[in-house]
Amino acid sequence: HPSAPSLMMNSHFASVGEEASKEAYEHGIQVIDEDKAFNDNLSTYLNLEKIIPAGFNYHLISVFGSQSTGKSTLLNYLFGTQFGVMSEQERRQTTKGIWMSKNKRDGRGMAENILVMDVEGTDGRERGEDQDFERKSALFALATSEVLIVNIWEHQVGLYQGANMGLLKTVFEVNLQLFVKDSKTIPRSLLFFVIRDHLGTTPLHNLQNTLLQDLSRLWSSISKPAGLENSRIEDYFDFAFVALPHKILQPEKFEAEVEDLSKRFREGYKDPKKAGLLDEAELPVFLPEYHRRIPADGFAVYAEGIWDQIVHNKDLDLPTQQELLAQFRCDEISREVLISFDEKITPLEDKQAEDARHGKSSVIPDLGPIMNAARAKILKDFETSASRYHKGVYARKKVELEGKVDTRLKALFQKQLSAAHKSGIETFSNAVSAAVKSGQKKGASYDFAHIVESEKKKALERFESEAQFIHVEGASWSTSQQELSLYQKELDEVSARLRKDEMRRLATRVERWVRSRLDESVGLEFNKIGTGRGGSGAPEHGERPPSEKDLWDRVWTIFTDTVGNAENRFTDRAQSFDASPDEVEVGLWRLRRKSWGVLRAKIDEEVMEGNILLKLRENFEDKFRYDGDGVPRIWKQGDDIEGLYTKARESTIALIPLLSRFRLSKTSAPPPLDAWVGSPPQSVSPADEEDLAPIGGVDEDEGKSLEEEMTILGDAKAADLLVRFKKTADGVYVEAKRSTVSSMTQ
Ligand code: GDP
Ligand code: MG
Fold first, then answer.
1. Under 8 Å CB-to-CB from 36, ≥6 apart: which residues?
2. Residue 189 phi/psi, 5° resolution?
3. C-alpha span between 565 and 226 (Å, rounded)
């Protein structure tokens, strides 16, 4: 037997007032009342009796027979039921409609879960001419029951015109009507004749033969549907016979034989050989082929549907009823199994929806195992309960359920994947930045390209393993190549952005280097003005070198050398992290422009009013107060102070126009800054130009010529400087003059 399914239907009935309910169903349940109304509480009762989870592991028996032939009494003895029994004194009909009760004597070799239906007496004595109920109850019993017990008195045997024959005729006709439509699978039923008040004078065997003869006569007399004219009664029914002694007169014997009879209500075999070993009187009653194959959890719905068709005199089409039942139950089971699926999955869906509302996304830990477990469980649960129903309907409903489940899981999957995508990109970007920062901190030159490559590899692995982790076994989708390549593409984009940042950092570092180099070396050149010994010539040989004349040549050389050096550094480093030739070209172009700005600022600082005036004064004093060997002059009477003064002053004054314009001595023209900077590279972007100051003569549309760019001191400033310098020089001269006068007076 199939084991009991895990699914419990209407399980709340079992807990709420179970004891009270049990009392209410002490006598079983009246499935159909005297007004032919179906009892809505049948499933409550079946649940109470724990039949619902039994699957196919249950049995249905109906009892037929005339009024007051001791049917209910027999059932109560046989199955420990408490069907109402007519009291000996009143002799009034007690059983009305159809009652059902579960066997209370199971566990003593009897089959499990035997349900017995006690059908209202069928001789119509108290219902008058109401043959209608007889027919309807027969239909109902046949559509549901495996075994029909026909209860008759011994003295009724052979009375072919008796009430029992009327009943059996109805049963046979109804049977043909019921099962002809489904001729492929004709379920057999067992007609179990229980002969009451058996005196013992006529052996059971003889009674049996008489009954069989009557039955085949009856069978041949009924009108059969087309195509079934030659069908035999044995095609549809098996027969069994038992005789019981008089219950009132031989109570002990009656009870003992009922006890024997009860042993036959056990599971039978399909294998006839096994059955053949037994005495006919001991054969088991329940053969698998009798079973109507209505799963226990669908029985109440099925029975109600059947009864509804019967009551409304509709053609009872069992296959259609079974399909309808299957649809109904499969839907119900779907809803039921979805409950525990929802318990697991809905909170995750809510979490993602909540995230989406806040414009964020987060990776749900353990999503993969949760989804897989939930999917496997719901499909397994559904299969366990629903696969007992009509195969076609079950298959269709299973696909439906799978579709529903997979749609939801796929949404979870994709949102998780996009969260993994986002967080993967973020992690990647952060990891690269952190590695760069720690590289900078250590002061070591870190390998940017290597950092990016290894972090990118990790990021890809993480994404792939996350996708693998949330793969749903058996589902119709998986991570597409597209999702992966989208991720890869974004990693590349972020890498490019990070590399650009790194280029900027590199540029800043190189610029800083250029600035400090120029600060030092250009400053040095300007300081030489102060000594009046500027220039590369050797002052120690007495001859004054061309000094300041080639100041700008030296500055230009220093500048281009320094920047050239910086360019090499920049290029080497940028190439080390796979910067594109275009990126390098733009970077170098920017570096040259910015370096020019640095130099220009340095020069401006050097020629600031106070600085340059001081240097001119030093230059003048050096020429005026020191002789050609650098020895300070002591003014004596008769020295040509005025002559020396004029010579030194004019020489220094000559520096002002020289300083005013950045020109190379060879060409007397400005340095070729425009050519040196070069025109903007093709790939330069507006962002690259954003922070660049315009350069006269280089940026033509600036309206400033190279000549102007190279003007260090404007005419007004130069004139002003000249006036100030002259005043300073005059002061020095007066002081010198005064010193000779004072030396004379000593
Ligand atoms: P039902 O209408 O067929 O269910 O019959 P009941 O079980 O209510 O019994 C009807 C009457 O028959 C009751 O008074 C019983 O005591 C009596 N009765 C029960 N069993 C037997 C039996 O084996 N033989 C006879 N003669 N009477 C019986
Ligand atoms: Mg009865």
1. 97, 133, 136, 311
2. -135, 160
3. 110
Burial of 185 (0-12, 13-18, 19+ CB in 10 A): exposed
Is residue 321 in some structural domain?
Answer: no
What global pTM score does this model have? 0.73
Q: Check pocket membership of 144 for ligand 1, CB cut-off 6 A.
A: no
pLDDT per residue as tens digits for the range 232-250: 888 889 999 999 999 999 9
Instruction: Supply the residue whose CA is at minimum distance from atom 20 of ligand 1.
Output: 70
Q: Are residues 371 and 284 in the same domain?
A: no
88 lines ligand 1 (CB under 6 A): yes
- Residue to probe by mutation, ligand 1, list 71, 85, 258, most atoms within 8 Å of CB: 85
CB hemisphere CA count around 42 (13 angstroms): 24
Residue 249 beta carbon below 6 angstroms from any ligand 1 atom: no
**How large is the ipTM?**
0.99
Sheet holding 114-119, edge to edge: 29-32, 98-102, 114-119, 59-65, 147-153, 189-196, 237-243
Shared-domain flag, residues 344 and 290 = no
For residue 65, which atom of ligand 1 is closest to its CA? 3
What is the tens place of the pLDDT at every residue in 541-565? 444 444 577 899 999 999 999 999 9
| Residue-number span of the structural domain to which 16 is assigned | 12-316
Choose the residue to mutate in 86, 150, 198 for probing ligand 1, maximizing ligand atoms within 8 Å of C-beta.
86
Average pLDDT over all residues of the chain: 86
- Is 97 annotated in a binding site? The answer is no
The verdict on 633 and 701 lying in the same domain is: no
68 is in an annotated binding site: yes
Instruction: List, for residues 12-46, the tens digit of each pLDDT value.
Output: 444 445 666 777 888 899 999 888 999 999 999 99
Ligand 2 mean position, distance from CA 72 (Å): 4
Lookup result for tokens 């007609």: 191
